[in-house]
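G., the chain you wanted modeled:
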Amino acid sequence: MMKIGLQVYSIRDDAANDFAAAMKKVKDMGYDGVELAGTYGLSAAEIKKVLADVGLEVISAHIPLDDMEKDPDGIFAFYEEIGCRYAAIPWLAAERRPGTDRFEETVASIRMIGAKAKAHGIQLLYHNHDFEFVKVDGEYALDMLYRVVEPEYLATEIDTCWVKFAGENPAAYVRKYKGRAPIVHLKDFFMESDADKDGVYELIGVDKKANNHSTFELRCVGHGKQSFPDIIEAAEEAGATWLIVEQDRPSQGLTPMECADISRKYLKSIGY
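Predicted structure as C-alpha coordinates:
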Protein backbone atom coordinates (compact mmCIF):
# COMPACT_ATOMS: atom_id res chain seq x y z
CA MET A 1 0.00 0.00 0.00
CA MET A 2 1.15 3.53 -0.74
CA LYS A 3 2.42 5.58 2.18
CA ILE A 4 1.09 8.99 3.23
CA GLY A 5 3.34 12.01 3.58
CA LEU A 6 2.90 15.70 4.35
CA GLN A 7 4.45 18.55 2.41
CA VAL A 8 6.05 20.62 5.19
CA TYR A 9 5.14 23.84 3.34
CA SER A 10 1.62 23.17 4.62
CA ILE A 11 2.81 23.81 8.20
CA ARG A 12 5.79 26.02 7.41
CA ASP A 13 5.35 28.50 10.29
CA ASP A 14 5.14 25.69 12.84
CA ALA A 15 8.21 24.04 11.32
CA ALA A 16 10.14 27.31 11.39
CA ASN A 17 9.24 27.94 15.03
CA ASP A 18 10.16 24.47 16.30
CA PHE A 19 11.00 21.89 13.67
CA ALA A 20 11.28 18.97 16.08
CA ALA A 21 7.97 19.70 17.80
CA ALA A 22 6.21 20.15 14.46
CA MET A 23 7.54 16.86 13.13
CA LYS A 24 6.42 15.02 16.28
CA LYS A 25 2.89 16.37 15.78
CA VAL A 26 2.95 15.22 12.15
CA LYS A 27 4.00 11.73 13.22
CA ASP A 28 1.34 11.64 15.92
CA MET A 29 -1.30 12.43 13.28
CA GLY A 30 -0.35 9.23 11.50
CA TYR A 31 1.78 10.49 8.61
CA ASP A 32 4.52 8.16 7.41
CA GLY A 33 6.88 10.77 6.05
CA VAL A 34 7.46 14.35 4.97
CA GLU A 35 8.42 16.28 1.88
CA LEU A 36 10.64 19.21 2.77
CA ALA A 37 10.24 22.79 1.55
CA GLY A 38 13.19 24.56 3.10
CA THR A 39 15.61 23.61 5.86
CA TYR A 40 14.81 26.19 8.56
CA GLY A 41 18.44 26.93 9.26
CA LEU A 42 19.19 23.33 10.19
CA SER A 43 22.04 21.18 8.95
CA ALA A 44 21.40 17.97 7.03
CA ALA A 45 22.51 15.96 10.06
CA GLU A 46 20.11 17.87 12.34
CA ILE A 47 17.14 17.33 10.03
CA LYS A 48 17.98 13.65 9.62
CA LYS A 49 18.22 13.18 13.39
CA VAL A 50 14.91 14.93 14.10
CA LEU A 51 13.07 12.81 11.55
CA ALA A 52 14.72 9.59 12.76
CA ASP A 53 13.92 10.42 16.37
CA VAL A 54 10.20 10.92 15.68
CA GLY A 55 9.99 8.06 13.19
CA LEU A 56 9.21 9.95 9.97
CA GLU A 57 10.70 9.06 6.60
CA VAL A 58 12.13 11.85 4.49
CA ILE A 59 10.66 11.39 1.04
CA SER A 60 11.68 14.36 -1.03
CA ALA A 61 12.25 18.09 -1.08
CA HIS A 62 11.01 21.02 -3.13
CA ILE A 63 14.06 22.99 -4.24
CA PRO A 64 14.01 26.14 -6.42
CA LEU A 65 15.45 25.51 -9.87
CA ASP A 66 17.83 28.47 -9.50
CA ASP A 67 19.35 26.95 -6.36
CA MET A 68 19.91 23.60 -8.08
CA GLU A 69 21.49 25.32 -11.07
CA LYS A 70 23.95 27.29 -8.92
CA ASP A 71 25.37 24.35 -6.99
CA PRO A 72 23.81 21.04 -8.01
CA ASP A 73 26.43 18.82 -6.38
CA GLY A 74 26.31 20.75 -3.13
CA ILE A 75 22.50 20.79 -3.05
CA PHE A 76 22.13 17.10 -3.80
CA ALA A 77 24.89 16.10 -1.40
CA PHE A 78 22.95 17.93 1.33
CA TYR A 79 19.67 16.18 0.57
CA GLU A 80 21.41 12.85 0.03
CA GLU A 81 22.79 13.12 3.57
CA ILE A 82 19.26 13.68 4.90
CA GLY A 83 18.09 10.61 2.97
CA CYS A 84 15.89 12.14 0.26
CA ARG A 85 15.10 9.86 -2.67
CA TYR A 86 13.42 12.58 -4.70
CA ALA A 87 13.85 16.29 -5.36
CA ALA A 88 11.17 18.36 -7.05
CA ILE A 89 11.30 21.54 -9.09
CA PRO A 90 8.40 23.42 -7.44
CA TRP A 91 7.51 25.43 -10.54
CA LEU A 92 9.00 27.25 -13.53
CA ALA A 93 9.09 31.03 -13.74
CA ALA A 94 7.03 32.44 -16.60
CA GLU A 95 10.07 33.28 -18.74
CA ARG A 96 11.32 29.66 -18.60
CA ARG A 97 8.17 27.76 -19.52
CA PRO A 98 7.44 25.94 -22.80
CA GLY A 99 6.87 28.35 -25.65
CA THR A 100 9.36 30.93 -24.36
CA ASP A 101 12.79 31.89 -25.68
CA ARG A 102 14.46 30.37 -22.63
CA PHE A 103 12.74 27.00 -22.77
CA GLU A 104 15.56 25.22 -24.64
CA GLU A 105 18.04 26.53 -22.07
CA THR A 106 15.71 25.33 -19.30
CA VAL A 107 15.43 21.85 -20.80
CA ALA A 108 19.23 21.56 -21.02
CA SER A 109 19.50 22.72 -17.42
CA ILE A 110 16.92 20.20 -16.19
CA ARG A 111 18.75 17.38 -17.97
CA MET A 112 22.00 18.43 -16.31
CA ILE A 113 20.35 18.71 -12.89
CA GLY A 114 18.54 15.40 -13.34
CA ALA A 115 21.84 13.67 -14.11
CA LYS A 116 23.55 15.29 -11.10
CA ALA A 117 20.66 14.20 -8.88
CA LYS A 118 20.97 10.61 -10.10
CA ALA A 119 24.65 10.62 -9.20
CA HIS A 120 23.53 11.25 -5.62
CA GLY A 121 20.82 8.59 -5.69
CA ILE A 122 18.02 11.13 -6.14
CA GLN A 123 15.31 11.25 -8.83
CA LEU A 124 14.32 14.70 -10.07
CA LEU A 125 10.59 15.50 -10.29
CA TYR A 126 8.49 18.39 -11.55
CA HIS A 127 5.56 19.71 -9.49
CA ASN A 128 2.85 21.37 -11.59
CA HIS A 129 0.37 24.14 -11.02
CA ASP A 130 -2.43 24.95 -13.46
CA PHE A 131 -0.47 27.40 -15.62
CA GLU A 132 1.24 24.49 -17.37
CA PHE A 133 -2.16 23.66 -18.85
CA VAL A 134 -1.87 26.20 -21.63
CA LYS A 135 -1.34 24.83 -25.10
CA VAL A 136 1.85 25.36 -27.05
CA ASP A 137 1.53 24.18 -30.65
CA GLY A 138 -1.55 22.20 -29.67
CA GLU A 139 0.08 20.48 -26.70
CA TYR A 140 -0.19 21.26 -23.01
CA ALA A 141 3.00 22.91 -21.75
CA LEU A 142 3.27 20.28 -19.01
CA ASP A 143 3.10 17.42 -21.50
CA MET A 144 5.68 19.17 -23.65
CA LEU A 145 8.05 19.42 -20.69
CA TYR A 146 7.66 15.72 -19.91
CA ARG A 147 8.04 14.81 -23.59
CA VAL A 148 11.24 16.70 -24.27
CA VAL A 149 13.00 15.82 -21.00
CA GLU A 150 13.73 12.10 -20.78
CA PRO A 151 12.06 10.13 -17.95
CA GLU A 152 15.45 9.15 -16.52
CA TYR A 153 16.10 12.83 -15.79
CA LEU A 154 12.59 13.99 -14.88
CA ALA A 155 9.63 12.15 -13.35
CA THR A 156 6.25 13.60 -12.45
CA GLU A 157 4.88 14.93 -9.20
CA ILE A 158 1.32 15.60 -10.26
CA ASP A 159 -0.53 18.09 -8.10
CA THR A 160 -4.09 16.87 -8.48
CA CYS A 161 -5.69 20.11 -7.26
CA TRP A 162 -4.23 22.19 -10.06
CA VAL A 163 -5.03 19.55 -12.67
CA LYS A 164 -8.71 19.75 -11.76
CA PHE A 165 -8.57 23.53 -11.40
CA ALA A 166 -7.26 23.63 -14.99
CA GLY A 167 -10.28 21.64 -16.17
CA GLU A 168 -8.71 18.21 -16.55
CA ASN A 169 -9.49 14.92 -14.78
CA PRO A 170 -6.84 14.33 -12.09
CA ALA A 171 -7.19 10.54 -12.03
CA ALA A 172 -6.89 10.31 -15.81
CA TYR A 173 -3.85 12.58 -15.75
CA VAL A 174 -2.09 10.49 -13.12
CA ARG A 175 -2.76 7.33 -15.17
CA LYS A 176 -1.33 9.07 -18.24
CA TYR A 177 2.09 8.98 -16.60
CA LYS A 178 2.00 5.39 -15.37
CA GLY A 179 5.50 4.28 -14.49
CA ARG A 180 6.68 7.88 -14.22
CA ALA A 181 4.62 8.98 -11.20
CA PRO A 182 6.35 7.93 -7.97
CA ILE A 183 4.72 10.69 -5.90
CA VAL A 184 1.23 12.17 -6.25
CA HIS A 185 0.13 15.33 -4.46
CA LEU A 186 -3.28 15.22 -2.79
CA LYS A 187 -4.76 18.69 -2.53
CA ASP A 188 -8.39 19.79 -2.31
CA PHE A 189 -10.16 23.03 -3.08
CA PHE A 190 -13.56 24.66 -3.29
CA MET A 191 -15.02 27.41 -5.45
CA GLU A 192 -18.55 28.18 -6.50
CA SER A 193 -17.85 28.76 -10.19
CA ASP A 194 -15.04 29.13 -12.74
CA ALA A 195 -15.53 32.89 -12.54
CA ASP A 196 -13.75 32.69 -9.18
CA LYS A 197 -10.45 31.61 -10.72
CA ASP A 198 -9.16 35.17 -11.16
CA GLY A 199 -6.58 36.17 -8.57
CA VAL A 200 -6.18 32.69 -7.12
CA TYR A 201 -2.39 32.81 -7.15
CA GLU A 202 -2.32 35.86 -4.92
CA LEU A 203 -3.90 33.63 -2.30
CA ILE A 204 -0.85 31.36 -2.34
CA GLY A 205 1.69 34.18 -2.60
CA VAL A 206 2.48 34.12 -6.32
CA ASP A 207 0.47 36.89 -8.00
CA LYS A 208 0.01 40.37 -6.61
CA LYS A 209 -3.56 40.86 -7.82
CA ALA A 210 -6.43 39.26 -5.97
CA ASN A 211 -10.10 38.80 -6.66
CA ASN A 212 -11.42 39.75 -3.25
CA HIS A 213 -14.83 38.38 -4.10
CA SER A 214 -13.58 34.93 -5.11
CA THR A 215 -15.02 31.92 -3.29
CA PHE A 216 -11.89 29.88 -4.06
CA GLU A 217 -10.11 28.36 -1.11
CA LEU A 218 -7.83 25.42 -0.55
CA ARG A 219 -9.47 22.81 1.65
CA CYS A 220 -8.49 19.87 3.81
CA VAL A 221 -8.27 16.67 1.76
CA GLY A 222 -11.73 15.19 1.38
CA HIS A 223 -13.53 18.46 2.10
CA GLY A 224 -13.65 20.05 -1.33
CA LYS A 225 -14.33 19.18 -4.96
CA GLN A 226 -11.89 16.32 -5.46
CA SER A 227 -12.78 12.61 -5.74
CA PHE A 228 -9.88 11.09 -3.84
CA PRO A 229 -10.90 7.42 -4.07
CA ASP A 230 -10.60 7.77 -7.87
CA ILE A 231 -7.31 9.65 -7.63
CA ILE A 232 -5.81 7.12 -5.20
CA GLU A 233 -6.88 4.20 -7.38
CA ALA A 234 -5.20 5.90 -10.35
CA ALA A 235 -2.05 6.54 -8.31
CA GLU A 236 -1.86 2.85 -7.40
CA GLU A 237 -2.25 1.87 -11.05
CA ALA A 238 0.41 4.39 -12.05
CA GLY A 239 2.91 2.84 -9.65
CA ALA A 240 3.08 5.65 -7.09
CA THR A 241 4.66 4.77 -3.76
CA TRP A 242 3.79 7.97 -1.90
CA LEU A 243 0.71 10.18 -1.60
CA ILE A 244 1.60 13.59 -0.23
CA VAL A 245 -0.92 15.91 1.40
CA GLU A 246 -0.40 19.58 0.65
CA GLN A 247 -2.49 22.60 1.63
CA ASP A 248 -0.74 25.85 0.78
CA ARG A 249 -2.98 27.88 3.08
CA PRO A 250 -5.46 26.88 5.77
CA SER A 251 -9.16 27.70 5.45
CA GLN A 252 -12.49 27.50 7.27
CA GLY A 253 -11.02 29.08 10.38
CA LEU A 254 -8.60 26.20 10.96
CA THR A 255 -4.88 26.32 11.72
CA PRO A 256 -2.38 24.64 9.38
CA MET A 257 -1.86 21.83 11.90
CA GLU A 258 -5.61 21.30 12.26
CA CYS A 259 -5.91 21.10 8.47
CA ALA A 260 -3.10 18.53 8.28
CA ASP A 261 -4.79 16.46 10.96
CA ILE A 262 -8.22 16.59 9.30
CA SER A 263 -6.69 15.55 5.96
CA ARG A 264 -4.98 12.58 7.58
CA LYS A 265 -8.17 11.52 9.35
CA TYR A 266 -10.08 11.62 6.06
CA LEU A 267 -7.51 9.41 4.35
CA LYS A 268 -7.68 6.94 7.25
CA SER A 269 -11.48 6.88 6.86
CA ILE A 270 -11.12 5.61 3.28
CA GLY A 271 -8.51 3.01 4.12
CA TYR A 272 -5.29 5.03 3.99
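The CA atoms of residues 196 and 214 lie 5 Å apart.

Shout if anything looks off.
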